[in-house]
Design a protein that fits this description.
about 600 residues, alpha+beta, OB fold (Dihydrolipoamide Acetyltransferase, E2P), BirA Bifunctional Protein, domain 2, 8-stranded mixed beta sheet, 5-stranded mixed barrel, globular, disordered C terminus
């Protein structure tokens, strides 16, 4: 037996017992010949001590002392000895094992280590090394307590979700990792076939089609902790490979899937936090979210809502507003209440004129073109532009915005999309600057009433708002219907202003599904080539079905307060989607490319095109 206990296990009831521990040397100290070591493993840290006065045999004492002095930091050792209390006054109340220590009687070196490229021991106030250095030596970064805790929290979250779904009679099924390439919105990673030269598999962007065909197969309730792959541009909450909790159910409507999701998350909450999650979650329509919060992933923990004041200000002679309105644009307004701006030390505002000027410059830096402002005083709205606004206009603004003395009105003007998006960014900026989220609990919200389609901002081509497999509200899209007004039976789950899940009731009628494909610009030949097998499956008595996928990485990161999902993934890629540890992506030998009968891509790096 290499160890009888872990380094985080010893307590008062182990006093006087002989134990054997194994782990890494985090710190060592020599106090006049008495050697102290902080021995750490995945479970904690225990102080182990060599005291020459406690050993009777001189030869054994000198031999053990020489050995222990040769051990470097982060060497892996095994020690055996007796548990005793620490010397009074040297206890460490922060450490669960801090009342005890192990008097070393025997020790052995299990492995040595060179000096580390960065510190892995917990040290108060110490700064982390750069992320790239941490990712280059991720196998060392994982020794840090915070990283280990992140992964353990993630494990508890996933395990609790599995238990909850098992209690709901769901069956876990693995779907293929090598599948047919189909258009699903993002770029695919493709894998060449050696047996069929010139053909390729794709890594799944999601198990979407497979889980729907499981419903055709009568499985009724499916889930999977699924690995998904998308060749997308980098973001802090995005990785080329990620994990989602994938769920599908037969004979359900939207509210059934949403209620199940809430029950699963409530079970997770009890498991990881030991308290009840408030359900049902609030619901907000896509339209209301965009027009009140400027985003389809609203953080409703603070107010700062947008209001369209275009009709209210159109009578003003303010040139900027007039120019925007004449081009079909709109003016959005946000009321920053006086109590939100009050400092903690006095009644002065935290957003004075200098801060407003900085907000205007920030807005310009965000591509917003600037901000217009008015402040409510006892004499009405005041600012450097109020002279362009007749008194009846400012009074109408005061009434519409509920302006009270000390409130600050901020205006954004532009096209509808630009003004709303700018308002959403402004909300987030103010929430951060005014510390509006301090002390706030997490808040889930359902986004419902989403459109079926949207237009690409560049090409103007019709594309699916969520994906092509959403069932239209009413079950079909009628001839002559304005497709831009069509709503789908889809929904998103938002947590603290970030989308963590998306789902829908699916098209189970093959003819409706074919119609959706055609609206998205697919020819009959393209539909048959890419989705013929799927439409065939739907034609064999597909039941009504729906589901949802929750992003495990993003959910875990938000709950832990991490700035990036890389903090909750064991071996993530960096911001450029590279693995600095193993050097991937990397070139492949020409022999391997030849075996796959691919064009030679491993030519001379110095050859100029």
């Amino acid at each position: 037996m290499m160890r009888t206990h872990t380094c985080g296990e010893l307590r008062a009831d182990h006093l006087g017992k002989d134990v054997q521990l194994a782990g890494w040397i985090r710190f060592s100290r020599d106090h006049g010949g008495v050697l102290f070591f902080d021995l750490a493993d995945a479970y904690g840290t225990t102080q182990v001590v060599f005291d020459p006065e406690a050993m009777s045999e001189k030869d054994d004492r000198e031999s053990l002392e020489r050995m222990l002095k040769s051990f470097g930091r982060e060497s892996v050792i095994s020690v055996a000895g007796k548990v005793r209390n620490r010397v009074p006054g040297t206890e460490d109340a922060r450490n669960p094992t801090g009342q005890l220590e192990v008097l070393i009687e025997r020790a052995s070196l299990l492995n040595s280590s060179p000096p580390l490229p960065f510190e892995v021991a917990d040290q108060k106030g110490s700064l982390l090394p750069s992320e790239d250095l941490r990712l280059r030596y991720r196998f060392l970064d994982l020794r840090r307590t915070q990283m280990a805790n992140n992964l353990r929290f993630r494990h508890r979250l996933v395990a609790a979700a599995r238990r909850a779904l098992d209690a709901e009679d769901f069956v876990e099924v693995e779907t293929p990792m090598l599948c047919r390439q189909t258009p699903e919105g993002a770029r695919d990673f493709i894998v060449p076939s050696r047996i069929f030269p010139g053909t390729f598999y794709a890594l799944p962007q999601s198990p979407q089609l497979y889980k729907q065909m499981l419903m055709v197969g009568g499985l009724d309730k499916y889930y999977q902790v699924a690995r998904c792959f998308r060749d997308e541009d980098s973001r802090s909450d995005r990785q080329p490979e990620f994990t989602q909790l994938d769920v599908e159910m037969s004979f359900v409507e939207e509210t059934d899937v949403q209620a199940l999701t809430e029950r699963v998350l409530a079970s997770v909450w009890r498991s990881v936090y030991g308290k009840e999650l408030v359900t049902p979650f609030p619901r907000i329509t896509f339209y209301d979210a965009m027009h009140s919060y400027g985003t389809d992933a609203p953080d409703i923990r603070y107010d700062l809502r947008l209001q369209d004041v275009t009709d209210t200000v159109k009578a003003a002679s303010y040139e900027i507003f007039q120019r925007v309105i004449s081009k079909g644009g709109r003016v959005e307004c946000m009321n920053v209440k006086a109590e939100l701006m009050a400092t903690t030390s006095n009644d002065e505002t935290a957003v004075g004129r200098n801060e407003v000027d900085r907000l205007i410059e920030w807005a310009k830096g965000q591509g917003m073109g600037g901000l217009t402002w008015m402040r409510m005083t006892k004499d009405g709205l005041q600012s450097n532009i109020v002279k362009y606004f007749p008194r009846e206009v400012t009074q109408a603004l005061e009434a519409k915005m509920g302006a009270e003395e000390g409130d600050l009105l901020l205006f954004l003007a532009g096209s509808e999309i630009a003004a709303l998006k700018a308002g959403g960014e402004l909300r987030r900026k103010l929430a951060k600057d005014l510390h509006l989220l301090e002390g706030k609990d997490h808040q889930f919200v359902w986004l419902v009433g989403c459109p079926m389609f949207q237009k690409d901002s560049v090409s103007g081509q019709l594309e699916a708002f969520h994906h092509a497999f959403v069932k239209p509200v009413g079950g079909d899209i009628q001839e002559g219907e304005d497709v831009m007004c069509a709503c789908g039976m889809s929904y998103d789950l938002v947590l603290d202003g970030s989308e963590i899940g998306s789902g829908s009731v699916r098209c189970h009628d093959p003819e409706v599904q074919r119609k959706v494909f055609k609206l998205l610009g697919m020819s009959d030949e393209k539909i048959e080539a890419d989705f013929g097998y799927f439409l065939e499956a739907l034609g064999y008595g597909a039941p009504p079905h729906g589901g949802i996928a929750l992003g495990i990485d993003r959910l875990t990161a938000i709950l832990l307060g991490c700035e990036t999902i890389r903090e909750v993934i064991a071996f993530p890629k960096n911001k450029k989607f590279q693995c600095l540890m193993d050097g991937s992506p990397a070139k492949v030998d020409e022999a391997k490319l030849s075996e796959l009968q691919l064009l030679c891509l491993a030519g001379d790096e110095d050859t100029e095109e």
